[in-house]
């Protein structure tokens, strides 16, 4: 027994004893983008959004200054202005649909998402999405006339997506990036559900969705004040009705390795390289406890999607009529938004989007060979013929570890064997890397004979 234990320890040493701290590389283009993202610009955009008085999805659409109609026309004109400033490559359009009668829609109502598409140099129909919802609400979900500033929920995310479009449209990317502003979130995720289905039906491959909802408050209702952290929510089990897939996930212990969770890990990994004091907290849960957001309809269609949200919420400033009661100010007002903090959350999006949209395709058809019982672990995938491909990273972690512990660059090959590494005890991932160091999302190999 003792001898066996000893042997096991020896086998583990090559994997986990050789930790060396890799030096952090910051891409100068990303640093430039980070510096261009401006808290002032975000502040101006939030104040403009609040000036429409309400952006409730059932509010006035004809007034030039009030209601959701005026708000969406302004959003479209802003995005068109950014497009003109950057050579007109970014295409701006409305995505209209009729929301049928439902619990929060008294009669069929036209709703309009606002979309700006920056086409990829190489991959036109493979896209990354950064999104927020521009509609707002007061205390009553059906009240379409009261003041509903929605400065933080989700003026912060909307202003952030605008800022990303303004800054990033000056650059070219291999993959298409869509900047998407949803309507109807507060009426039941209506805009995102419509749009996610539309993308699925048109065979567009959504590689990842970063949904920003409530990203500007740093003063928790419980008194905690902290501007150094943000949360990223991701689903564990895919929202899939595929029984075989769910059984396989359960059989081989991949409950913590959905594509959405890989996207969340990626965000933390690359974003924290660029911040000296800003922490990305991964929350291994689809959304906040029993609450929802616009990333979920993408999960329903099988697309990787995460929610980015502030660390400490303040419930007297969300979904409240604007008022003062017993000395407490209620309502989602711009004075409660920390614009510098919001800008940092927006920068985090920019870092991830830049690297994702310039990386090679994630490895295709990744498998873990299981033709016979072996002490080694062999991974295999399709070798890509992309020009700028440098090769592949193999990622490894223990089953109890939330994050990848080891990354091995294995070059431009389509198979790699990890000697004396038992597939019983580790989780494996593979990612593509280009010659500039842009890394793709990590894919987890499935068993194959
Ligand atoms: Zn919201």
From TrEMBL:
Chief location category: secreted
GO BP: any one term: proteolysis
Gene Ontology CC, one term: extracellular region
Superkingdom to which the source organism belongs: Bacteria
UniProt keyword annotations, A-Z: Secreted, Signal
Protein name: Peptidase family M28
Subcellular location: Secreted
GO MF annotation: an example: metalloexopeptidase activity
InterPro entries in UniProt: FN3_sf (IPR036116), Ig-like_fold (IPR013783), M28_fam (IPR045175), Peptidase_M28 (IPR007484)
Annotated signal peptide: 1-20
Peptidase M28 domain: residues covered: 113-321
Listed Pfam families: Peptidase_M28
Gene3D superfamilies with a match to the protein in the record: Immunoglobulins (2.60.40.10), Zn peptidases (3.40.630.10)
